[in-house]
Amino acid sequence: MNRDVFAERRRRLSEACPDGVCVFFGTRETLRNGDVHNPYKPDSDVWYLTGMAEPDTVLVIRPDGPKATLFVRPRDKVRETWTGRRLGPEGVVRELGVDAAYPIGDLSKEFPKLLEGRRKIYFSAGRDADWDRIVFAQIAATRAQGRRLGVWPTDVCDVAPTLGEIRLRKSALELDLMRKAAAVTAEGHLAAMRTIRPGMSETQVQAVVEYVFRVRGSERLGYPSIVGAGRNATILHYVENNQPVADGDLVLVDAGCEFGGYTADITRTFPANGTWSPAQRALYDVVLDAQRRAISLCRPGVPFTAPHEEAVRALTEGLIRLGLLSGERDALIASGAYQRFYMHRTSHWLGLDVHDVGAYVDGDAQRPLVAGAVLTVEPGLYVSEDDDTVDPRWRGIGIRIEDDVLVTDGEPEILTSGVPKDPDAVAAECAKRLPLPAW
Ligand code: GLY
Ligand code: MN
Ligand code: MN
User: Fold this and answer.
1) How far is residue 249's CA from residue 233's CA, in Å, rounded to a whole number?
2) Where are the alpha helices (DSSP H) in 85-171?
3) Does pLDDT of 112 surpass 90?
4) Which residues are catalytic?
5) Ligand 3 centroid vs 264 CA: distance in angstroms?
6) What is the pTM of this model?
7) What's residue 147's pLDDT?
8) Distance (Å, rounded) from C-alpha 76 to C-alpha 104?
9) Using CA atoms, how far apart are residues 383 and 376, in angstroms rounded to an integer?
10) In terms of CB atoms within 10 Å, which of 9, 134, 147, 405 comes out highest?
11) pLDDT at position 439, please?
12) Rounded-to-integer distance, Cα 321 and Cα 318, Å
């Protein structure tokens, strides 16, 4: 992404916070075990505002000069030989176009100067004890000076809601990346359908999906893949992915890859042997109806909760029709009886983070959908394997269908339509039994 894009984003943030200094701490690397780190995902806020993708970064933005200052890891020949290249302070000014930069070790020396003359700090206090300690120590230092000058930071405001609203509305450039992530993610799911057969393992299904992501150029997964066969599909965040796929199982795959930092988030559920059992198909049809009805409501001005509420109505109607619930729809919703089979929400924002920033409510008021926002629509039904209140044929079936939907001024745009969800089309793909690569 071009450095002007980042400068424009900083300008918009400064416009929204004209009277203060914005402070962002980049995500730290975390240890996996020993001296090996977990894969690093650049901090989304810092990346969005600067393009800086290295750990141990602090970003300070003032509405007046120097407008954007980065504190970064210094160049270090030995460390770079072990753990990779660093831009260093000169590099971030030269390559990323920020106005000033210092080694991260100079933070306590330089930070108070950036707070001078400002009454407000926009910062997400309470997220990280170390960050809080650093910022509050700086405020104390600046106060000592400021009492002579008459101005020091007296207000700490959370920057997250402001930047969240900016990040929520995707630009054409961002949408190109999201479409790319969606298309490749769809291709990975399609490959899983085309190669599935009983006797494979969940691990192998995961490998097929992630293989496609990688060979198509995705830099990383948007989140750990979920591949659950049979009763494992009823565990919402099942990530062990290590059991065999049996004849007659449904396989639920929830996986998404990133492009340029933006992730897709798709779930498909499909029959391992290429044929739906009547019970599987009946539940699938209910979930698909709920999903389509929910997507049709993804329009500007509609409350964020409306697609969820419509999905709940559709699922509850279906559960009554199939005999899994008995009673009157609205009463079953009001009492929460449907939650035995549908225990999660239907949507979340999507972008640089799989559960992206942006508010879901506006104080006590409903938060409306806006054009340019992308949200998932992901209803499901999950019947516990030991639910002896329902007919045995339903037990152990888990189904979720998830697409990524762009809100536009016209029809909702489904970014993830590259992988089928029509049950006959899905079964036809699963019946292909294409060979796994043999090498
Ligand atoms: N894959 C995480 C989610 O669907 O929310
Ligand atoms: Mn999701
Ligand atoms: Mn998902």
Assistant:
1) 9
2) 88-91, 107-115, 129-149, 160-168
3) no
4) 35, 237, 254, 265, 344, 348, 355, 378, 382, 400, 402
5) 8
6) 0.96
7) 65
8) 13
9) 22
10) 405
11) 79
12) 5
Classify 14 as helix, strand or coil.
Answer: helix
With a 6 Å cutoff on the Cβ, whether 223 touches ligand 1 is yes
Surface-to-core class of residue 205, CB atoms within 10 Å of its CB (0-12 exposed, 13-18 middle, 19+ buried): buried
Helix axes 129-149, 107-115, angle to 10 degrees: 50
- Order of strands, sheet of 20-25, starting from the edge strand that comes earlier in the sequence: 100-103, 68-72, 58-61, 20-25, 120-122, 155-157
Which tokens is 19 given?
Answer: 């009277």
Distance 354 CA to ligand 2 centre (A): 7
User: What is the amino acid identity at position 171?
Assistant: S
Asked if the model's pLDDT at residue 55 lies above 70, the reply is: yes
224 with 239: CB under 8 angstroms? yes
Instruction: Please tell me the distance from the alpha carbon of residue 345 to that of residue 343, in angstroms, as a whole number.
Output: 7
Residue 403 near ligand 1, beta carbon < 6 Å: no
Sequence-ordered alpha helix ranges (H) in 296-436: 306-322, 329-334, 423-430
**223's tokens:** 């989140």
Which residue matches tokens 């494992």?
A: 232
244 φ/ψ angles, rounded to the nearest 5 degrees: -70, 155
Does 236 contact ligand 1 (Cβ within 6 A)?
A: no
Structure tokens that stand for 282 in this block: 């009946």
| Alpha helices by DSSP H, 323-439 | 329-334, 423-430
Domains of the chain: residue spans and CATH: 3-166 (3.40.350.10), 169-430 (3.90.230.10)
How far is Cα 84 from Cα 231, in angstroms, rounded to an integer?
Answer: 43
pLDDT tens column, 328-349: 999 999 999 999 999 999 999 9
Question: Is the separation of the CB atoms in 270 and 421 below 8 Å?
Answer: no
Residues forming beta bridges with residue 253, ordered by sequence position: 227, 268
pLDDT for 406 equals 98
Give me the amino acid identity at 149: L
Residue 280: exposure state from Cβ atoms within 10 A (0-12, 13-18, ≥19): buried
The string of DSSP codes covering 246-306 is PTT-EEEEEE-BEETTEE--EEEEEETTS---HHHHHHHHHHHHHHHHHHTT--TTSBTTH
Kindly give, in sequence order, each residue whose CB lies less than 8 Å from that of residue 313, ignoring residues fewer than 6 positions away: 293, 329, 333
Alpha carbons within 13 angstroms on the beta-carbon side of residue 351 total 23
Q: How high does pLDDT run on average in the chain?
A: 95
